[in-house]
Write a structure and sequence with these properties.
nine-stranded mixed sheet; pyruvate-formate lyase- activating enzyme; 441 residues; Arc Repressor Mutant, subunit A; 19% strand; four-stranded antiparallel sheet; 18 strands; alpha/beta; 2 domains
Length: 441
């Protein structure tokens, strides 16, 4: 069957898939084991992103399809940190004189760790980075039930710059319907603690399209979030994904308000002075700026450490195996913890990007954010023009979804709101086939 044109795709829902990375993990598969020394030998390691994954949460939200497990024993977390330390040291040896310019700790919920475990994790991050963390603009994710003053004080003392919390909704009935057992009073208490800790950047996540949500209740959540004056706000459309709690519940179909709610949220944040950086990210006028070495996900590599973390080089993306269901996650996690040093020091599961995939990745990662697809940067990387390699990009302009300006191709507001249709449209046939064939566990 021939691939659908963009115009044909747009006759359906604009919410067809969130491409926060390309290729998606569901396209990954077994690799011939390759030592990390060889994986990174020819790579530019002068400006890397360091990511540490903590696959533990206090509970599993009904919409979550991340690689995480809930209610873990302390002994399992300690064993995980032991293996993470072995992996980190093997990777650091392989990367030699690598220089890291950004750091993020995600999950899961990093602050689900006990304070001493969290300190151990930050010590390991400093060891890999080769010094204090405050020069890397570190970001850490937290949750309302784990944002305790003691944990937050530790994070701030270690130089954490950005703290991110998923509120999802300030309407308790909506979070309950989404399988998220958080009380409004707990959210307010956590936000008070976060502001008291004086992190330079507070990011809040909200979700639109939740069960029972209306334009009026969405407005309540937006106003409640703005009262805390977050430096960043992410507005995420709800996806009911396979093996999640919402999918298992089989919620009855309801009128899809997501596009209307997106437009409502965008208008409110722009009126409040926020700048839109992508379909999801809005940055406040009061957000501080750090003078840091530039990092671009299209051009620069990433070292991901931990079960569930991905690493990116120019031609190879690799990670542990992927699972979503509770049993699948537990099995992958147990196998990862038990790995020997040889396995931890090699790439065994991932996706090799040929020239076409590298070009597609660059185009997708550039186009779906406000900086756009810069022609000069693309030509410097690939010695060709985007329109020559991906002639279908012209259809975006024809449909009014993109425009040529500032020496690049940029999505219009109409294009930004259709990012989750445009991204999947640019996926290669090979990646699409592998994603479709993936059987999640």
């Amino acid at each position: 069957m021939p691939a659908l044109s963009l115009a044909e795709r747009l006759t359906g829902s604009p919410y067809q898939g969130y491409l926060y990375a390309y290729p998606h993990k569901t396209a990954y598969g077994p690799l011939a084991p390759t030592a990390l020394d060889d994986v990174w030998a020819a790579e530019d390691r002068s400006a890397l992103f360091l990511y540490l994954h903590v696959p533990f949460c206090g509970y599993r939200c009904g919409f979550c399809n991340l690689f995480t497990t809930s209610r873990s024993e302390r002994s399992q977390v300690d064993a995980y940190l032991d293996t993470l330390t072995r992996q980190a040291r093997a990777a650091r040896r392989a990367l030699g004189d690598a220089r890291f310019v950004r750091l993020a700790v995600g999950g899961g919920t990093p602050t689900a760790l006990e304070v001493d475990q969290l300190a151990r994790l930050l010590d390991l991050a400093s060891e890999v980075a080769g010094g204090p963390l405050d020069g890397l603009a570190p970001g850490v994710e937290t949750s309302p039930d784990t944002a305790t003053p003691e944990r937050l004080r530790l994070l701030r003392e270690r130089g954490v710059w950005r703290i991110s919390m998923g509120v999802q909704s300030f309407v308790e009935e909506e979070t309950r319907a989404a399988g998220r057992p958080v009380r409004s009073a707990q959210v307010d208490q956590a936000l008070g603690a976060l502001r008291a800790a004086e992190f330079p950047v507070l990011n809040l996540d909200l979700i639109y399209g939740l069960p029972g949500q209306t334009e009026a209740s969405w407005a309540r959540s937006l106003e409640a979030a703005l009262r805390w004056q977050p430096e960043e706000l992410f507005l995420y459309p709800l996806y009911v994904r396979p093996l999640t709690g919402l999918e298992r519940r089989g919620l009855p179909a309801a009128r899809d308000l997501r596009l209307a709610l997106y437009r409502q949220g965008r208008a409110r944040l722009l009126a409040a002075g926020y700048t839109q950086r992508s379909m999801r990210l809005f940055v406040g006028p009061h957000a501080p700026r750090l003078e840091l070495p530039r990092y671009r996900c299209q051009a620069d590599g990433m070292l991901g450490l931990g079960c569930g973390a991905r690493s990116y080089t120019r031609a190879l993306h690799y990670a542990s195996d992927y699972a979503v269901g509770a049993r699948g996650v537990r099995e992958v996690l147990s196998a990862w913890i038990a790995q020997d040093d040889a396995a931890l020091g090699s790439a065994r599961h991932g996706y090799a990007l040929d020239g076409d995939e590298q070009r597609r990745r660059w185009a997708i990662q550039s186009l779906l954010c406000s900086e756009g697809l810069e022609h000069a940067a693309y030509r410097a990387r690939f010695a060709s023009a985007p329109a020559d390699d991906l002639p279908q990009l012209g259809e975006l302009v024809e449909l009014g979804l993109a425009e040529e300006r500032d020496a690049g191709l940029h999505l219009t507001p109409a294009g930004l709101e259709r990012s989750d249709a445009i991204g999947p449209w640019l996926i290669s046939p090979r990646v699409a086939a592998r994603m479709s064939a993936c059987e999640l566990v």
